Amino acid sequence: MKRLLTLVLAIGLLYSFSTSLAQTRITYWQYDFNTRIEAMEQLIEQFNAANPDVVVVQETFPYDAYEQRVAAATAAGQGPDVVQLFYGWVAAWQRAGYIEPLPQEHIDHAWIEDYFIPMVESVKIDGEYYGLPTAVRALALFYNKDMFREVGLDPEAPPQTWSEFVEAGQALTIQRGPLFQRIGYGPGGQDHHLIRTVLMNQLGTPPYSADNREVLYDNEIGVEALRTWTDWQLSDEFAVFEFIPGAGGYRDGFINQENIGMIVDGSFAIGQVRANAQFDWGVAELPTFENGVQSNFGSFWMNAVTPRAYENPERLEAAARFVEFVTSEEAMELWLEVVGELPAARRLVNDPALLADPVNGPFIAGLAYAEATQFVDEAAQRQVMIDAFNRVLLEGMDPAESIMIAAAADQALLDAFAND
Amino acid sequence: MTGQSGSQRRSTRARLTLSQREAVYAYLFLLVPLVFFATIRFWPAIQSFRLSLFTWHVDPARRVFIGAQYYQEMLTNPVFHRALTNTLLYALITVPASIALGLLIAILLQAITTGRGWYRAIYFAPYITPAVAIAWVWGWMYNVNFGIFNRLILSWWDFVEGIGAPWLAIDPQRFLRDPELALPAVAVVIIWQQLGFQVVIFLAGLQGIPRVYYEAARIDGANPWQLFRHVTIPLLNPVLVFAVVITTINALQLFDQIVNINFTDQGGPLNRTLSIALYMYQEAFGRARLGYAAAVTVVLFVLILAITLIQLRLTQRRVEY
Q1: Does residue B92 lie in a domain region?
Q2: Mean pLDDT of A330-350
Q3: Radius of gyration of chain A (CA)
């Protein structure tokens, strides 16, 4: 009995010793989303096959528990070596120590700036890059062509200006008594970006100064952006916020209930629309004001390295090699195919075939003039804009007053970050 | 050496009586959960107090001591005040309502014999239904354009117009989207969900009251109200105290229902449904401000402790049979 136990222990020790000598084991974390997990599994398989000295293991968590897991695990010295996070969280995560800069000795800054589209610079803090994306997303207008036909609108001529958008929206809307049966436009998860980044830039001012220290929308432009958006619900009466309950209610209403004619959504929604919509639909570039200035909100999830990867040089080198691999052109092409998100490399974005694609095309076109607004505290800054439109929609406050309250609150967040 | 201590042990054991030995075993077994509680509950609680005095960083060496700064921030933070007010409102609405309704239903159920088990199961079902499912269903019922409540309001509208009394009509409501109605609307969901728990507890309590007291009181000429007021209530007191304390603690810790019922703007609109627990969660994991969130938990802990102690003082009178 004793001899057997010794034998087992010896073999176990030997095994772990030999594997630890030969292989570096690193962990990759992302949130649960079927196609993303599937794409990453394929990438990891390829990487492990090509890099016998490294083993990458993927672990995933429900979206709602994701930040909680990262906070708990990193604080305990556990958790991932490479972690995926939304670019807007980078400031908060960097300050909390969940992520570290990408090691410059392995990932060259000149290469980053040459290879990726400029949007990536929004995650450069104090001269260090904190992560790199496999894919990026932009916004576009999804519209129901069948519904357009039904009310006599040309399904091949989606609205190009916001006034055409209002006209189309009103034509699509069906009211029964005081309630709506069907709405032309379903505002939802991306609309705070639509107001802050798209409408404000179209009207002539970015929401924040270039050094991200100052709120720039405490003026007529801010008022106009908020008023345009709230008017769709209050006076033009073709839009209803939270028309359908749930996190993706607006998308659900567009795809499944077919009682929302148009939505503004990210390229990440393409897969879901394509798989479930039982009607003829189209995608168009975001409308503009009469001045014709285009703007779009670009965003991305990025791959970052954690303090755990910095524990020893082998881990760090392996983590950097893995980040480079998942941001390679091959990885981006696989990601586009499996997940449907747009590639983040300059060369791929400028591919004419992609631009000519009727679904990907409008997103790719939007990407060319998209801004990835820098956030210091994404959760709080998102709330500021949601509260700004809710004060107008629900409490009858004038947009001019509401946007000033929002600007002050937003400025306080920027100041708090700068003074920290 | 071994022999000596062995004999000593034997003699000690011989000196313990049976009940003493049983007590030793009981303490031994209690030690296991005690160790569990100490490491899983008490130690983190102490840690979170410590965390509340520092800025947050995963590396303890890089946390900066800031003393009571987070507690001062709470004094002036309007969102924290809103969350605190909301939480107290939740408690003030849900505790009395669910206890009164639960007691009423329990008394009615006790009066019937056929199908009591079925009724009890039906009332208990919401309590064991996941909060996500409940929030989803109620979200639809409260929905402005498609929900059952506004449908009923419109039917009522048609009805009163039909009988020539249009002044009795009510406008459709925005419920969860209405800053004034959102909190009461969520409170209704919570009451509905907890009702089954109250019913089961009160039923057990009612069945524990000996019949003879009722018979004696009836012989003395007591009416049903007097029976309820002077027999049922005093004898149900321990159960009532338990129910009040548990429901209050639940109300002060509300999280699941609120998170799930308004997904795009959790705690909204305009923070009108935000509870302390959700606020704490958002600060900790939405904004990575674990130090501040820890300070909020300390305040929540003190609040729950204080309210529970006051309730026990006020409601735990000695029951004389």
Answers
A1: yes
A2: 91
A3: 24
Q: At residue A347, what are phi and psi to the nearest 5 degrees?
A: -60, -40
Q: What would the pLDDT profile of A393-418 be if each residue is shown by its tens digit?
A: 999 999 999 999 999 999 999 999 88
- Sort strands A370-371 and A139-144 into parallel, antiparallel or unpaired: unpaired
User: Closest-CA residue in chain B for A380?
Assistant: B287
Q: What residues of chain A lie within 8 A of the CB of B177, using their CB? A: 241-242, 394
In a domain, B42, yes or no: no
CATH number, domain with residue B177: 1.10.3720.10
User: Would residue A10 be called left, alpha or beta, if left means φ above 0 and alpha means ψ between -120 and 50 degrees?
Assistant: alpha
* Percent above pLDDT 90 for chain A: 80
pTM score of the predicted model: 0.88
Task: Give the sign of the dihedral formed by CA B31, CA B35, CA B41, CA B43.
Answer: positive
**For residue A34, what pLDDT is reported?**
85
Q: Rounded to a whole number, what is the distance in Å from the CA of A189 to chain B's nearest CA?
A: 7
* Amino acid identity, position A402: S
**Cβ distance B217 to B226 under 8 Å?**
yes
- Residues from chain B contacting residue A179 (CB–CB below 8 Å): 144-145, 150, 154, 172
Alpha-carbon distance A8 to nearest alpha carbon in chain B (angstroms): 32
- Mean of pLDDT over chain A: 92
Is the domain spanning A25-137+299-371 CATH 3.40.190.10? The answer is yes
- Per-residue pLDDT of B126-153, as tens digits, reads 888 888 889 889 999 999 999 999 999 9
pLDDT by residue (tens digit) across B64-92?
999 999 999 999 999 999 999 999 999 99
- Would the CA dihedral through A292, A189, A339, A57 be positive or negative? positive
Is the CATH number 3.40.190.10 carried by domain A140-295+376-419? yes
